[in-house]
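RECORD TYPE: inverse folding
INPUT: structure tokens
STRUCTURE:
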């Protein structure tokens, strides 16, 4: 692994391009998912500038005085909308939105446009109990809060201390007053809140392949850990989340990676292990035309969603939507809850630590 890491670093130093530093093992795995005529375009996207986005904080904007609200709407007018999210906008390359007064007053959150997808697919409603299980730094929590209209209870959890502090800061800046920030393990939360939540988002720690073009450390982390270690941790988190979901509740699983091992394969394994889990069409929560693609050709892949950076303006994203069908089973306990190839591996805790410095 050290040798692969060194090769990746040397590739970046040689010509300054991300494409040259992409691990060969990773390229080969992508060739299994994309047709040959798309691979060149896909690889070239890693040397293109990252697309930046802005997520409007709907409840904060509602509380603005009329004149200020009109001025804010005028500020947004030149920006192109994100097609898969009604509150999302693309930022022009030179727009310094983080130093604007609208940012300081919590009128928006700066977020990769692809990362806006999971909250839209979750489609939380006012008055519900909702859990964002891996909540930091807070963008997806903000997206969920928009659809809840300030009613109900939103719990945003983050296990890593420093990332939890960032989550608290962002929730305070955005004024998410109905949001409670937790600092717990998924297992402990499942003991506290059995079958309690109407909707749960699991934006799982992952190998971060969608971050390759904007975080050079993501390539090094991929070489060190790889998708299999991440998949084992993801399945652990999903099992805990499922215990907290009410019968007929909705769980959305998302990652910012392209790996089928961490995406469709995790969901297919979860469906086999949980007889009360039903895969729903994630596209049903989106507008008709978005540029979002279906998942890969697994049994339920057509009902899952992917954002590829060469097909849509945004970094990588995967989403699947599951429902706990109370007619199939009530409070089913699945021993282990995973296939042998996805059982916990020694690297699982190291994968958790790796995500302290990731941004989503």
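DESIGNED SEQUENCE:
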């Amino acid at each position: 692994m050290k040798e692969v890491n060194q090769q990746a670093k040397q590739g970046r130093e040689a010509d300054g391009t991300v494409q040259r530093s992409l691990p060969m093992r990773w390229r080969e795995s992508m060739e299994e998912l994309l047709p040959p005529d798309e691979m060149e375009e896909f690889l070239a996207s890693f040397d293109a500038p990252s697309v930046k986005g802005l997520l409007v904080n709907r409840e904060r904007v509602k509380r603005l005085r009329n004149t200020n609200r009109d001025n804010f709407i005028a500020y947004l007018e030149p920006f192109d909308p994100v097609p898969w999210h009604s509150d999302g906008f693309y930022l022009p390359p030179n727009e310094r939105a983080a130093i604007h007064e609208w940012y300081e007053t919590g009128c928006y959150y700066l977020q990769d446009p692809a990362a806006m997808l999971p909250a839209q697919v979750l489609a939380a409603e006012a008055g519900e109990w909702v859990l964002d299980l891996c909540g930091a730094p807070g963008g997806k929590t903000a997206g969920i809060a928009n659809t809840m209209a300030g009613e109900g209870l939103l719990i945003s959890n983050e296990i890593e201390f420093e990332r939890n502090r960032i989550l608290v800061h962002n929730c305070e800046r955005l004024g998410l007053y109905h949001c409670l920030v937790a600092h717990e393990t998924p297992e402990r939360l499942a003991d506290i809140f059995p079958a309690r939540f109407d909707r749960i988002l699991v934006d799982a720690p992952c190998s971060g392949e969608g971050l390759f073009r904007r975080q050079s450390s993501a390539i090094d982390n991929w070489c060190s850990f790889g998708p299999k270690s991440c998949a084992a941790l993801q399945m652990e988190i999903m099992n805990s989340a499922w215990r907290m979901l009410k019968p007929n509740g909705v769980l959305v699983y998302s990652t910012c990676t392209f790996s089928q091992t961490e995406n469709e394969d995790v969901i297919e394994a979860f469906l086999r292990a949980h007889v009360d889990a039903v895969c729903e069409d994630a596209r049903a929560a989106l507008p008709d035309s978005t540029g979002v693609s279906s998942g890969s050709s697994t049994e339920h892949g057509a009902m899952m969603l992917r954002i590829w950076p060469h097909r849509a303006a945004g970094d990588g994203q995967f989403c699947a939507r599951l429902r706990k069908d109370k007619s199939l089973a009530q409070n089913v306990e699945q021993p282990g809850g995973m296939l042998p190839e996805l059982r916990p591996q020694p690297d699982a805790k190291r994968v958790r630590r790796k995500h302290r410095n990731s941004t989503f």
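NOTES: The CA atoms of residues 126 and 148 lie 4 Å apart.
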